[in-house]
Amino acid sequence: MIINILAGGPQELLPNLAEYNQNGCLWIGVDRGVFTLIQRGIQPHIAFGDFDSVSQEELREIEAKVSKLCRFKPEKDETDMELALNWALDQEADRIQLFGATGGRLDHFFANVQLLTKPVLSGISKEVFMIDRSNIVFLKGPGKHSLKKNSRYHYVSFVPVGGAVEGLTLDGFKYPLNDCHIPLGSTLCISNELISNCGTFSFSEGILLVIRSSDS
After folding, report:
1. What percentage of the chain carries pLDDT values higher than 90?
2. Rounded to an integer, what distance in angstroms lies between the CA atom of residue 133 and that of residue 140?
3. φ and ψ at 27, to 5 degrees?
4. 140-213 shares the fold of 2-133
5. Strands laid side by side in the 198-203 sheet
6. What is the mean pLDDT of the chain?
7. What confidence tier does 216 reach under pLDDT thresholds 50, 70, 90?
């Protein structure tokens, strides 16, 4: 099962949500993202937020159309996105996709990137992806991982998170690496490209932020 979470980031950065509205997937609305789903004809399964970014009229429409509404005070220890992701991680989902989580306020963006560490640090096998019109972002822990070529997202970047990455090896890429030490703050692995239909990246220690990007 796939769980899609839509937050209230700038709508101009959203991909075509209809492409991700597959049979059997669940949609979670986060704050203003709930109203966006309703506007686009997608029924939210559940909604989270303090709803301080919607009007009273919009909130009434949300209350009328969403049966599972988890409303919180603005003064709380978690962001609305974290509350939604925590719920999603507790479900029987194979893949979780975050939308509306980039652009706009930088504090929200960096907080959302930090949230990607939750399953990796907890040893949870669920995959969590942050997706916008031009990027797919996800985290990986040590091991060997495959990556298929994607004509939409041509560039691939690897960024160490929280500390150095040890033993990074890239196979099937324009700029290969073999057993490299990548310190925190390095830009060595920015804007690489797959030259094979499927490449692999592997490392023995650390956490990698993987960013697949397009120019559009």
Report:
1. 76
2. 22
3. -110, 135
4. no
5. 143-148, 198-203, 165-171, 177-182
6. 93
7. low
Q: Are 155 and 145 in contact (CB under 8 A)?
A: no
The CATH number corresponding to 2-133 among 3.40.50.2300, 3.40.50.10240, 3.30.390.50, 3.90.226.10 equals: 3.40.50.10240
Domain boundaries, the chain: 2-133, 140-213
User: What CATH superfamily classification does 140-213 receive?
Assistant: Thiamin pyrophosphokinase, thiamin-binding domain (2.60.120.320)
* Sign, CA torsion 108/42/36/102: positive
List, for residues 52-74, the tens digit of each pLDDT value: 888 898 888 999 999 899 988 87
Q: Radius of gyration of the chain from Cα atoms? A: 18
Residue 125 pLDDT? 77
